[in-house]
Amino acid sequence: MTDKKTDDAVVVPTGLRKGLTNYGDTGFSLFLRKAFIKGAGYTDDALDRTIVGIINTGSGYNPCHGNAPQLIEAVKRGVMLAGGLAIDFPTISIGESFSTPTSMYLRNLMSMDTEEMIRAQPMDAVVLIGGCDKTVPAQLMGAASANIPTVQLITGSMLTGGHRGVRVGACTDCRRYWGQYRGQEIDEAEIVEVNSKLVASVGTCSVMGTASTMACIGEALGIVMPGGATPPAVTSDRMRIAELTGKQAVEMARTGLTPDKILTPKAFENALRVLLAIGGSTNGIVHLTAIAGRMGYDIDLEAFDRMSRETPVLVDLKPSGQHYMEDLHRAGGLQTVLRELRPLLHLDALTVTGRTLGEELDDVPAFTQDVVRSVKDPIYPYGGIAFLRGSLAPEGAIIKQSAADATLMEHEGRAVVFENSEDLARRLDDPDLDVNADDILVLKNIGPIGAPGMPEAGYLPIPKKLARAGVKDMVRISDGRMSGTAAGTIVLHVTPEAALGGPLALVQSGDRIRLSVSERSIDLLVAEDELERRRAALVLPTPKNAERGYRKLFFEQITQADKGCDFDFLRPPTMQGRIPTRND
Ligand code: FES
């Protein structure tokens, strides 16, 4: 591949000549680089091609990426078919249930790894292979900042399994069976038995959890190949998408189609629309905020809420509905959803194919299916997520209204407060805990700083004694997150968090709290002078083991949920505006 000339005749190195190691002599740097890589058997012809880097996030600790070797092989095939040279390289991989204290704590580290390894190594385009919850946002954040031609390849969802004649899949059913076990509806033998049935293959969670949500968001943003969000991990469709991804990456290197041309305000607006219409994970809004932040845009959560009032949930998938990801794929995948949403989308947004979203949708066939509803006959009349504000959350909070109990969405109750996760673990199942079904469970100090890393602990279990009495849902409030696979009347991302001294820190057991989803409000019904007294006596928790290393950086730089929990120094110094712009 010959080097490119810019308009003002500056020669931009390409391929192996990009980003030479600094030895003070560029000719020698290239000579040395070629000498070393020839040790792996490459010819000069191969080394003179367009180079596509493939980020390999395969890891024994990440079964959600268990098909990475096959995907890499298929991407390489696509790159070679298009005349390029594919070189794979590793970055951090984050498996959701294998990361302590929580995968979110590591997302920004992975994004930094992604950005810097894209920058440091010679490549004309990059394919990001990701799937498990935090990997796709981390990769998109890093690639957005690096800004070379990029395609995101999703690993794909796992297959569903079967347990005693019932179809099951991770991880909505994991929570359902665990709830039944806690409520003594199933015994020890059955919980052990179902543990082997819930995950039937490698791949990401089989419901509309965070991984599936981020896959759909990627396609809606135009950074995933059209049709690339939903093929399950172990299918031929997934491998074909991988091959096409490799081919397209070479084409993008040729045309210079960089993320800044794709990840525009219109693309983010489309993605917000899709997040609402798929009944997507509440984590999706945090990750989208972080990715948009890298491009210089803040998400206007009030305007997002107005979008929610006009964007119904169309996808009948767990946890909001009944189907699984493989069913959505058979129903035409995200493209069926996008076709239904067409009047609400910016059809002129560009995709990785170089064509607009509208042009891509023109080719999508319509057929009868029962997974994606029409706008006239939705699963839920409003968007999946509602944005709340009030005296308990001055900077906001969210609720996944499509997965909540309709009878609890207008509710006033007595607070039963847990100071942190340890306190919750210690007292929740105490038979003497003073708690009733219409109380509101409050968990403090699981925010971005408090835990740290804002763990998915916002899905507080129903206290055992109530679960055994048949209680299935209660209003639960925290400054943490919740898995996209969970359901319930759960208020999350309360901002500012308790560890920063937000009003959540002042709540005491016995206080009254009022939730009104219709009014988009969450209020602590305590007199201001009493709150002032509590504020004066408040002692904030000190971060533990934060004297050095990544943990020190994390505590110093982490932003709140309304800024995507990105590190402050990773966002651009000057922001360009707010998204969505349409409702301003
Ligand atoms: Fe990896 Fe759910 S645990 S996607």
From TrEMBL:
- What are the EC numbers? 4.2.1.9
The UniProt record lists the keyword Phosphoprotein: no
Pfam assignment, any one: ILVD_EDD_N
Domain called Dihydroxy-acid/6-phosphogluconate dehydratase C-terminal: residue spans: 370-565
User: Ranges for the Dihydroxy-acid/6-phosphogluconate dehydratase N-terminal domain?
Assistant: 49-359
For whether the record's keyword set contains Iron-sulfur, the answer is: yes
Q: Which GO terms describe its molecular function?
A: dihydroxy-acid dehydratase activity; iron-sulfur cluster binding; metal ion binding
Gene3D superfamilies assigned to the protein according to its UniProt record, in alphabetical order: IlvD/EDD C-terminal domain-like
Q: Which UniProt keywords apply?
A: Iron, Iron-sulfur, Lyase, Metal-binding
InterPro entries from the UniProt entry: Dihydro-acid_dehy_C, DiOHA_6PGluconate_deHydtase_CS, ILV_EDD_C, ILV_EDD_N, IlvD/EDD_N, Sugar_Degrad_Dehydratases
Per the similarity annotation, which family is this?
Answer: Belongs to the IlvD/Edd family.
PANTHER family tied to this protein: HYPOTHETICAL DIHYDROXY-ACID DEHYDRATASE (EUROFUNG)-RELATED, HYPOTHETICAL DIHYDROXYACID DEHYDRATASE (EUROFUNG)-RELATED
User: Which protein, by its recorded name, is this?
Assistant: Dihydroxy-acid dehydratase
Q: Which organism is it from?
A: Stutzerimonas nosocomialis
Organism ancestry:
Bacteria, Pseudomonadati, Pseudomonadota, Gammaproteobacteria, Pseudomonadales
